[in-house]
Structure formats: C-alpha cells, structure tokens
Amino acid sequence: MKIVMLGAPGAGKGTQADRIAAKYDIPHISTGDIFRSNIKAGTELGKKAKAFIDQGLLVPDEVTIGMLLDRIAQDDCSKGYILDGFPRTIPQAESLTAALKEQGTAIDFALNVDVPDAAIVERMAGRRACLKCGATYHIVYAAPKKEGICDVCGEELVIRDDDKPETVSKRLEVYHDQTQPLIDFYSRHGVLHTIDGTQNMDKVFADICGILGE
Ligand code: ADP
Ligand code: AMP
Predict the structure, then answer these.
(1) Would you identify the CATH topology of the domain 2-26+79-212?
(2) Ligand 1 mutation target, pool 138, 182, 203, 204, most atoms within 8 A of CB
(3) Residue 182: its pLDDT value, please?
(4) How confident is the model at residue 165 (pLDDT cuts 50, 70, 90)?
C-alpha cells in the first residue's frame, strides 16, 4: 500500500501517518524529519536545507526529489510506505509518478487532511517536537506524560524554529501557492480522499481507516 498525505503544515499529517504506519505495518517517511535529522547531525544536506526551512520556504526540488527516491528504493519500502510532507510541488509529484510508473506501480491513496488556516495557527503554536525520534506532541491536544520530555525516547522536546508565528504565515502562503494544486493532481489520478482534519485525532484516524480498509 503506497500512501501520500496531503494537507497544510500542521494539519496533522505526521500524527496520522504514525498511526497508519503502525496499523498497516509500513514505514512512515517524513521528508521534514529527514531534513531535521540532517540539520541536527550537521551534514551538508542539513546545511543546505536549513536556510530554506528557517525562512518557511521549500527546500529546492533538485535536493528533495533525489533524497526521497533514494529512500523509497530501500528494502523496507517493498511492501509500501506512507509519505508525509512529500510531494509538496507538482514537479515532485510528477517525478514520483514517473519513478513508480517505471516499476509498473502507482500511489494507491492520497489522503488530504483538511484544516482551515485559523486552526493551523493554533496547532503550530502548541506543537512540541522530538528531534531524536520524530514524535510530535501538542501542549493541549496531545501532551506528553512528563512536560517537555518525549514519551518514546526521553529526549527533551523543542519548539521547532519554523513553528514561530512569523514563519508559520509564510509556510501557509507557500502551501497555498505550491502544494495545494496537488489536491487536483491526485484527484485527476483518481486516488484522492479528503478527511475533515478539524475533528479530534481518533475521529480523523477512524475516517482514514474507513478509507484504507481493515
Ligand atoms: P503536520 O505533520 O501536518 O505538520 P502534525 O501531525 O505535526 O502536523 O500536527 C500539528 C500539531 O497539531 C501537533 O502539535 C499535533 O499534536 C496537533 N494535532 C494533530 N492532529 C490534531 C487534531 N486532530 N486535533 C488537535 N490537534 C492535533
Ligand atoms: P514538515 O516537517 O513536513 O512540516 O517540513 C518542514 C520543512 O521542511 C518544510 O517547511 C520545508 O521547508 C521542508 N520540506 C519538507 N518536505 C519538503 C518537500 N517535499 N519539499 C520541499 N521542502 C520540504
């Protein structure tokens, strides 16, 4: 099963992708997490990506597409995967479609988690992230057991640099301009499903399971 998650930054893609990955036993691949771990490790890729991420801009397609295609070529992806945060531009979606076509396959589901901009701002303001294992929390809606500490790995939680209010509005602008057109793209490919992302996390997940099947 090959799935892509669509939706604005902060819509809940990562939260749901984690649950889907656990239930359907497929890897959760987040391009944002790959960039953040490279930034933390101080790699060349991380240095290149950081300048764009901190400004709320997309990392250029030349960097991102190759990185993602390499990742999905790995052995753990043979049964499928869930892509969270990729594709984010039409050229990314076209490259993915072309690479899959060469293998005689295609994306099975594009899940669009729909949340209006006003709710996004509140979600991003309360988001706390673990840069070690990628787990995500919210100070109100998904608080960790111990304040400021990751339940999964015990690392200290941080506010992502790009979750600051001034960067969030830029990211939303970039989303509407460059990523939202993917909703039409996947609709034309006949695999688009839109879910009301303003519901609580369990209800969003139940709707997704209804789409993906047992
Ligand atoms: P994305 O991966 O789309 O950027 P996240 O999954 O990181 O979004 O979610 C953004 C923030 O909103 C996180 O703090 C998360 O805990 C919280 N969140 C996710 N889904 C919901 C929901 N259905 N209701 C309330 N808060 C949510
Ligand atoms: P995310 O964790 O998905 O919110 O991603 C954080 C940031 O990483 C984004 O705001 C972008 O700057 C960058 N990024 C992640 N995925 C992509 C992508 N597919 N294309 C370009 N930039 C990306």
Answers:
(1) Rossmann fold (3.40.50)
(2) 138
(3) 98
(4) confident
